[in-house]
Design brief:
Blueprint: E1 5-13, E2 16-21, E3 24-30, H1 32-42, E4 47-51, H2 54-57, H3 63-72, E5 77-80, H4 86-95, E6 99-102, H5 104-108, H6 111-120, E7 125-134, E8 137-142, E9 147-152, H7 153-162, E10 167-172, H8 184-193, E11 198-201, H9 207-215, E12 221-224, H10 226-229, H11 235-244
Parallel strand pairs: 1-4, 1-12, 4-5, 5-6, 6-7, 7-10, 10-11, 11-12
Antiparallel strand pairs: 1-2, 2-3, 7-8, 8-9
Length: about 250
C-alpha cells in the first residue's frame, strides 16, 4: 500500500501566501518560496501552490514564482490557477513544476483534461474540485469558490477520472479554514468510487483530523494550509503521531 502523503498548500495572491476562512477573509502568511523551502526541509511529501485569484481576474500563474520554488525545494510540487490550455501547462512544467492542478477551466472545458493527459500523461494532471454541500448534495464551484455551477461533485470527479486525471483534489468549501475536521463522508465515497488517488482539503485543525481522514475518509493524501503556515502543527510531529497509530507514512 502506498504511503499516505502530507501536503502543505500555499494559496498565493499578489505574490504573497495567504489563508482565508470559507474562501474569504484572507490574511498574509508569508513568502511562498521561503515557506515552501521550510516545508520541504521539515519533511512534507509534496507541496501545492495555487494562484487563488488567477481564474477570477483572468491572469496566468506567475512563471517566475514556479522557477524560484523549483530552485529552492527538493520535493514534488503542483501548481494551479489560471491554467486554460496545454500551452500553459508546458510553460509551468518547463519552469520546474511536477504537476498542474486544473479547476475552473476544466469544468468549463472538460476536454482540457484529455489534452493535458495525452500530451504529458495522467501523472501530471490533478483535477481540483471546490464544492459546497447544498440542499443535500455537493455542488461544484468555479472562480475560486465564487460562482456555483450545476455540476455535482461525484459525477464530475468520475468524469475527470475517466478522462485521465491522475488525482482528485477535493476541497470542501464548508470546511475550509474552520479547523473542525475534513469532509470524511464525502471523501470516503470518492475514494471508494474512483480508481485514482484522492487528496483531502479543507478542515484540518488538529492531529486527530489527519488520522480520521486517512481511516474514515480513506484519503490518499491530506492537504492543509493555515495550521502549517501559523505554526499550529509541525509536520514532523504530525508524521510521528500518524506513524505511532499505524498509518503508513514516510518519516
Amino acid at each position: 500500500m502506498l504511503a499516505k502523503r502530507i501536503i502543505p498548500c500555499l494559496d498565493v495572491k499578489d505574490g504573497k501566501t495567504v489563508k482565508g476562512v470559507n474562501f474569504v477573509n484572507f490574511r498574509n502568511a508569508g513568502d511562498p518560496v521561503e515557506l515552501g523551502k521550510k516545508y520541504s526541509d521539515d519533511g512534507a511529501d509534496e507541496l501545492v501552490y495555487l494562484d487563488i485569484t488567477a481564474s477570477h481576474e483572468g491572469r496566468k500563474t506567475f512563471i517566475d514564482l514556479v522557477t524560484r520554488v523549483a530552485e529552492n525545494i527538493n520535493i514534488p510540487f503542483t501548481v494551479g490557477g489560471g491554467i486554460g490550455s496545454v500551452a500553459d501547462v508546458e510553460k509551468l512544467l518547463d519552469a520546474g513544476a511536477d504537476k498542474v492542478s486544473v479547476n475552473s477551466s476544466a469544468l468549463r472545458n472538460p476536454s482540457l483534461i484529455d489534452g493535458i493527459v495525452s500530451r504529458f500523461g495522467s501523472q501530471v494532471c490533478v483535477l481540483a474540485i471546490d464544492a459546497r454541500f447544498t440542499d443535500g448534495d455537493w455542488l461544484c464551484y468555479v472562480n475560486g469558490g465564487r460562482v456555483p455551477t450545476e455540476r455535482h461533485l461525484f459525477e464530475w470527479a468520475r468524469e475527470g477520472a475517466d478522462r485521465g486525471a491522475g488525482e482528485i483534489l477535493f476541497t470542501s468549501m464548508d470546511h475550509d479554514g474552520v479547523k473542525t475536521g475534513f469532509a470524511c463522508e464525502a471523501l470516503s465515497r470518492l475514494s471508494e468510487e474512483l480508481p485514482i488517488p484522492v487528496i483531502a482539503s479543507g478542515g484540518a485543525g488538529e492531529y486527530s483530523h489527519f488520522y480520521e481522514v486517512f481511516t474514515e475518509g480513506k484519503a490518499d493524501a491530506a492537504l492543509a494550509a493555515g495550521i502549517f503556515h501559523f505554526n499550529e502543527i509541525a509536520i514532523d510531529g504530525l508524521k510521528h503521531y500518524l506513524y505511532d497509530r499505524n498509518i503508513n507514512i514516510r518519516l
